[in-house]
Every structure is written in C-alpha cells, then in structure tokens.
Amino acid sequence: MPEVAVAVRELTLGEAVKEALAEEMRRDPRVFIIGEDVAEAGTTFKVLTGLVQEFGPERVLDTPISEPGFTGIGVGAAMTGLRPVVDIMFGDFAGLIMDQMANQAAKVHYMSGGRWKVPMVLRTTLGATRRSAAQHSQSLHAWFCHIPGLKVVLPSTPYDAKGLLKSAIRDDNPVVFYEDKMMYKLKGPVPEEEYTIPLGIAEVKRMGEDLTIVATSSMVQVALGAAKLLEEYDVSAEVVDPRTLWPLDEETLIESARKTSRVMVIDEGYERYGAGAELTTVIQAGAFYDLEAPVKRIGAMHVPIPFSPPLEDATVPTEASVFQAAMALCGRKL
Amino acid sequence: MAVSVVMPALELAQEAGKLLAWLKQEGDAVAKGEMIAEIETDKAVFELESPADGVLAGVKSSAGDMVPVGRTIAWIVARGEQPPAEDAADAATLAMQQQARSTVAAAAALAIAPAPTKSGGPAGRASPKARRIAEEYGVDISQIRGTGPDGSITSEDVLAAAAAKSAAQPAAAPASAMSAVARLMADRTTQSWTQTPHFFLVREVDANGLLKARKNAGEGFTITDLLISLTARTLAKHPKLNATWTGQGIRLNPEINISLAIAVEDGVVGAVIPRADSASLAGIAAQRKQLAERARAGRLRPPDVAGGTFTISNLGMFNVDAFNAIITPPQAAILAVGRIADRVVPVNGAPGIRPMMTFTLSSDHRVVDGAQAARFLDDLAAALYQPQL
C-alpha cells in the first residue's frame, strides 16, 4: 500500500482561539462576545477578525472603554441564561473588574444556594517582552487563582487553547482564560475534527528522567526549549503543563516529581506569592520524601516590568535562565 | 589498686565474646555494678558490670572486637593512677586485633568516603529522599560524602554507599562473626522453640487440583504462589490462626500478611506479602519474585520482612516429604509444605496413583487449639482440592 502523506493542519494560537469561539457560537446561540474592539477591529491582537461578519454585532459586541461595566454585563447575562465571553484586552486591567469577578461571579452560585450560576468566560492576556511597559506586561493570573469559585485556564499550545476554551465556554462556572500575547503567532497542530480538553487535567509535554519542569502558559515553550539545551548535556528533563491552575491536577505533578526527584516550577507571574509558590507547595507536600533538593521556583522579578527591552527581557524566565537553574539543581557544572 | 575488666564467660563452652559497645568512655568515673559495656555472645547481648569503683582506664578493645574469654579489656583505676603495663600475651592479641581492625578500616575506606566536616556549608546535608533511602538500607548517612550540589548527599550517594557496604561485608566480617541474618535466625528460633508451646498437625492432600490450577494460571506461577493465595483466603475464615499471643491474651491480626520463608546464603528470611487474601494471583507472584530476588541479593528492606502474620515454608523443591517447622513469633502458626510426589492411594476403592503432598501445621497452643487448627487445615485441603483462583 502506498504511503499517504497526511498533512497535519497547523493553526496559530490566535486562530485556534477564534476557531473555538466560532464553533461554540455556531453550536450554542447563547454564546456571545463582549469587549473593547472585539467586532470591527477583531481585537488589538487581531484574534477575532471575521467573527462579527459571521455572527453579527448582536453577538460580537463592541463596548466603550469601561471594563467594570461590560464585565458586570457579562456576569448579569450569564446569571440570566446567556453564555458570555468577556474580552479584557490586557490582564493588567484585572484591578478594574475584581469586584465583578471576585465578589459577584465567584460568589453568586454559592450565595444563592445553587439557584444562580455564572457560565461566563473571561478571556484575557498575560506575558511580557512585548515592550508594552509596566501597565500592559504583567501576568496577574494568581489573583484569580486565589478566589474560590473561579476556574483559571492557561493554555500553552494552539491545540490546548482550542480544546480548553471550548470546555471553558461549556462550563457552568466562571472561567478566566489566559492567553499569552506573545504566543498568538505560535503555530501548532490543531485537528479539524471536534474535540475538547477537560479542565483539571495536566499534560506531560515531554518525558524525562532527571528533573521535572512544571511550567504554565508560554513558560511551557520556554521549558521545552531549555529541555532541548539540557539534552545536549545529558540531562533529561520532563516538562509538565498543569494547563489549568484551578482545578489543579496535583496527582500528575506529584507523580512526575516522585519519578525525577528534582523539580523546577516556572511561571511568568511575579515569583513572590505567585502561582509558582502554590505549585511548589503542592509538590513538596506530596513528594517530600522523594525529593533530592528543594523545589526551585522561577517567576518574574519582583519589580515593575521595565519598558527598556534589555531590562524587560531580564525580568522574566528565559530558556537560558531555566537551563542554568536546571543544571544547578542537578548538581551539574557548566 | 587497679582492677582488671575481663571478657566474661557468660555461657558454658563460650570461647570468645564480641565487644559491642562501651557504655562508658576512658576516663569516666564508674561505680561497682554500673554497666560499662555491652558484650555479645553467639546467643544474646549482655551488659558488663564494673567490677569496682574508680575510673575506666587502659581500654584495650574497641567496639566490634572479638575477645577471648578471660582477656583483659580495660582497667578500673583510682583517679590519677596509671593502668598496669600490658603483659606479652595481651600485646600480641592487641596487635592482631589492630591488624584485623585496619583491614576492616581499609575495606570501609574503599566503600565509604571520609565523614564530611560538620562545620559550616551545606556539605553533609542530605535530601529528604536520601534520608529515607538511608533509613531503608540501614546506611549511616553521616559517613557519606555527598556529590550533589554544594556537596549535599543525594539518594544516589546513599545507594552507592549501601552497595559498597554490602560488597565489603564479607571482607569486613571477622571469621568468627555471624551475619545479622544468621544471628537473628539463631535468636528467634531459640526463643520460639523454648518459649512457644508448639503442636503439630499433619495432613496429606491430593495435589492434582493444585497442579491443574497452576497449569491453567499460565506461565510464571509457582506452587508457592498458589499456596500463598489459597492459604491467605482460608485464613480469612480462621482468624485464630492469624493471631498473636500478647502475653496477656490473644490479639487477632486485622490483616493477613503471608510471610514466605526464603533461603538465603546464611539462613532463612521471612519475606512478607501483605494482605495476600485480597491480592490477585498475579500480584502475589510478582511480589514473590521481587522479594526472592531482593532476598538473594541481600537487599531486602525493612518493610519487606515486617508485619507477617502467618508463615509458609515450602521445602518441596528440596525433595523433602514433610517436616516440622518452628513458629516465627509473634505469629501463631506456620505451614510446612513438603514435595508433591506420586503415591499409591485408594481411589474409589482401588489402588490408584495420585500426586500427593504433606502439610504440617505448627501452631502456638496458647492461641489456637487442636480442633481449631484441624478445621483450618481441613478447609485448606478442601480449597486445594478444587482451587478457586
């Protein structure tokens, strides 16, 4: 039988997000998009281009610059039966919408004795190195992880972005969905057939023996790059992507830690009091007697993200810094 | 005036004793009758009393030395007094002992790097995993030099030290010293045989069903695996056979952990298959294989031999027809299994040839009586006749 070359369809992460939205909007008339510049402009990052043409301005709603207002609209719409996808251009604006998210969306189901629910997705961005300065470069996902009642999703590949976003839209709870603005152009295989990825299932992105690198969002790509460098030094790194920080697949993290005995946690949020601290604690509590060394945590420096490109690059984890830390963790000299 | 401390003869026919440890150090004040050292004979450990009031001095033997009975190992002197000079015979012994010690030391040095300095720096720090493994393998972590970051001790370092230690063991052990396994076996069988009121029930069983069941189970299963499974399940109906004499009464053990007697180089060890009554046959076989491999490699870990509640000892592979086994305290019973051999037996009133085997059940009469043990044996024989696995 002749070999048939099957072309694997590749999409960018941005295209995968748009495809997930389009599919869910076709599938469920209750799904709609609301936010700044989401319609004609297709967002600042051009992720939603074309959606308003297909679904019309009633389902792709442009708003004034009023994050607290349209996030509140999203919460109310969700409570009354729709399934809004609220677009917050920069994750740095989380402060503006915190009451809507933390005190309304996250609490309503509980405080109504289960009579109300908030099936809303809040799509927003994180990630530095775009030269966007201190108010547009932060990764503040830990803020939402801290609130019971919110789910927090951080895809690291186009495939995961599509499957996780579809699950997020179908979830009856408020879900905060983080896209790294530097990953929108990242290409990867995305099958044409329908699929979803359940929230709360980590994925081992690369198998390894000598150490585990737990990484979130774009830091998974950084970890995979570092793992390649490490391979040249005969250090075999396993890369584990939790994919959702809440719910958190503790078992997979602990299992990998117990296997390799050495663990690094890479998250682009501020290192102090961040998501990495939580992951580190989970791992050390579950795998303490299998660890050869303290869990190494790397996040953004405890400074405002600088506008200066060389300084900005130095504040967040890179392949080189992860590689160096991994070598040190394994007791290997360079 | 100086009083000599000599290696005592604690038992008839004792030729030498091993100095296990000094409880007092050279220069310590001691009172007459106070314990100053631990001496091990081939049956037990004794504490050595000081023969006089004074100061311990002139210590000639170190922990680990085998010393002939009657030899001076130290002196008790008045404060400020010098111990008497050694006599010629003592000097010769000392020289031999030192030579032996240096051989030990050389072997140990090969195996284990010098102790790290205690002062400052993370050198000598051990990871949680390293500490756990060291405990499991009985390795003294303070004697290991770490190769991890900043000299920290990793589990690999511990495993290397454990391997070196077991490799160095034959060279390090003095000719007269017994291995821990052999010593433990000596102690435990003596204790059990002299203190546990044994009684024995013998039962011949038809092994045809057992052989068929093994064949049906597929490759990789032994008669022992099947016996472990069937015995454990039968024990579930006979808790008295899975019990312990506590001194005050009987404790029924909540778990059925089958201890399997495995022959090793210098004795026998009881490797434990926990909760064998609920384990699958495949699970039992896999555990039995692992335990046997570890036992033969001398790598059994403490959990491998802990918690047994009933022992099976199978000498069938050595062509033994039947034997009486000694109970392993704190267990209350042990099943001795003989070989399977073709015998002429009555089959439907006529002589027939059947594969037969003989079980001998040893039981502790403080825990279980003859009728109870017999009912267990009867149920086991029935289970064997048509094994449900």
Describe it.
The complex is a heterodimer of chains A (334) and B (389). Chain A has helices at 13-27, 51-55, 67-79, 94-105, 108-111, 141-145, 158-170, 218-232, 250-260, 275-287, 309-315, 319-329; strands spanning 10-12, 31-35, 60-62, 83-88, 121-126, 151-153, 175-180, 187-189, 203-206, 211-215, 237-241, 244-246, 263-270, 296-300. Chain A is an alpha/beta fold and 334 residues long. Chain A has 2 domains: 10-189, Rossmann fold, CATH 3.40.50.970; 203-329, Rossmann fold (3-Layer(aba) Sandwich). In chain A, the strands form 3 sheets. Chain A has a 7-stranded mixed sheet, sandwiched between helices. In chain A, helix 8 links the parallel strand 10 and strand 11. In chain A, helix 1 (13-27) packs parallel to helix 7 (158-170), helix 3 (67-79) packs parallel to helix 4 and helix 8 (218-232) packs across helix 12 (319-329). The model of chain A has no long low-confidence stretch (mean pLDDT 96). With 389 residues, chain B is of the alpha+beta class. Chain B folds into 3 domains: 3-85, OB fold (Dihydrolipoamide Acetyltransferase, E2P) (Beta Barrel); 112-172, Dihydrolipoamide Transferase (Irregular); 183-385, Chloramphenicol Acetyltransferase, CATH 3.30.559. Chain B contains 8 helices and 17 strands. In chain B, the strands form 4 sheets. In chain B, strands 9, 12, 13, 14, 15, 16 and 17 form a 7-stranded mixed sheet that branches. Chain B has a 4-stranded antiparallel sheet with strand order 1-8-6-3, with no helix packed on it. In chain B, helix 1 (88-111) runs antiparallel to helix 3 (155-172). Chain B starts with a strand and ends with a helix. Mean pLDDT of chain B is 82; it is low at 91-122 and 171-176.
